[in-house]
């Protein structure tokens, strides 16, 4: 006996009859809207991304949430600002000991909107550091690091360290007198650490002393290594937040169910 498999269902968009020639055609706005919806449906039919988006966005939020819960999202948008402005700055920046300062001067004084983009990147780094500390402070005082969110707290602590490392490596890139000597002081402080201090010092300086390759090493760490790690850990951080849920404020107590109290007695 030959087994026949059922035919796949026909999509709803193909069930409707085609438009008659004498019917009124939709406006350009409606046509563009239908085209966009069709494109999104086409992509979702082949990737099933809508399920993951619904799982990430449409979830229960505890009662009593306030603006303090937006510090994590604000930190993520600050990182996106740093990444976007950093890409535009990298189009003009030359990470060499002879041309770094001149390229930074060209960005600030001559490039189109260079001063604006560099200002957003410079002050955006300060904003990101402040938001990271505020977000971790809120998490600590709210008790959101406790079970079952210990791993998410560890990921957040690593993100804090990477944020400070990105700020430290980016401070040298203008390559003026202030950034040069401040970086030497910072690297020497790292070199005094136990066990790994001298090795960390040689890694950051790309050698035993501050040389021509030190700036390239800092640029590679600032532009490629640290942002990649931060982006990956932000993805893991968001997954754990969606998976484990959000902690309610500590001043709100859970309502006791009288039925459960009777059963416990």
Q: What's the total count of β strands?
A: 0
Return the CATH architecture of the domain at 66-244: Up-down Bundle
The fraction of residues in strands falls at under 5%
In CATH terms, what is the fold-level topology of the domain at 66-244? Cytochrome Bc1 Complex, Chain C
Report the major sheet: none
Radius of gyration: 27 Å
Number of helices: 11
Describe how the helices and strands are arranged:
Blueprint: H1 12-15, H2 28-47, H3 49-57, H4 71-90, H5 100-109, H6 114-141, H7 150-171, H8 177-191, H9 197-205, H10 212-244, H11 258-264
Helix pairs in contact: 4-6, 5-6, 6-7, 7-10, 8-9
Describe this structure in a few short sentences.
The chain has 265 residues and is an all-alpha fold. Helices cover 67% and strands 0% of the residues.
Describe this structure in words.
By secondary structure, the protein is mainly alpha-helical. It has a domain at 66-244: Cytochrome Bc1 Complex, Chain C, CATH 1.20.810.10. Helices cover 67% and strands 0% of the residues. The protein contains eleven helices and no strands. It has helices spanning 12-15, 28-47, 49-57, 71-90, 100-109, 114-141, 150-171, 177-191, 197-205, 212-244, 258-264. Helix 5 packs across helix 6 (114-141). The radius of gyration is 27 Å and the shape is extended. The model has no long low-confidence stretch (mean pLDDT 88).
List descriptors.
265 residues; mainly alpha; Cytochrome Bc1 Complex, Chain C
């Amino acid at each position: 006996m030959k087994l026949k498999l059922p035919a796949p269902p026909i999509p709803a968009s193909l069930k409707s009859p085609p438009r008659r020639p004498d019917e009124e055609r939709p406006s350009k706005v409606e046509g563009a809207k239908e085209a966009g919806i069709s494109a999104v449906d086409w992509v979702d039919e082949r990737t099933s991304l809508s399920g993951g988006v619904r799982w990430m966005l449409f979830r229960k939020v505890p009662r009593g949430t306030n603006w303090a819960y937006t510090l994590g999202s604000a930190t993520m948008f600050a990182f996106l600002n740093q990444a976007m402005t950093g890409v535009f700055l990298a189009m003009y920046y030359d990470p060499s000991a002879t041309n770094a300062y001149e390229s930074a001067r060209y960005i600030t004084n001559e490039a189109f909107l260079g001063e604006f983009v560099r200002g957003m990147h410079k002050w955006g780094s300060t904003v990101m550091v402040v938001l990271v500390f505020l977000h971790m402070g809120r998490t600590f005082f709210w008790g959101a690091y406790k079970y079952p969110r210990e791993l998410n707290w560890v990921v957040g602590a690593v993100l804090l360290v990477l944020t400070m490392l990105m700020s430290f490596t980016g401070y040298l890139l203008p390559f003026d007198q202030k950034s040069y000597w401040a970086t030497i002081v910072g690297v020497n402080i790292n070199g005094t650490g136990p066990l790994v201090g001298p090795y960390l010092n040689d890694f950051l300086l790309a050698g035993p002393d501050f040389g021509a390759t030190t700036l390239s090493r800092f640029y590679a760490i600032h532009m490629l290594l640290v942002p990649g790690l931060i982006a990956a850990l932000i993805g893991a951080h968001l997954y754990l937040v969606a998976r484990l849920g959000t902690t309610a404020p500590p001043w709100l107590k859970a309502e006791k169910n009288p039925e459960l109290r009777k059963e416990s007695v």
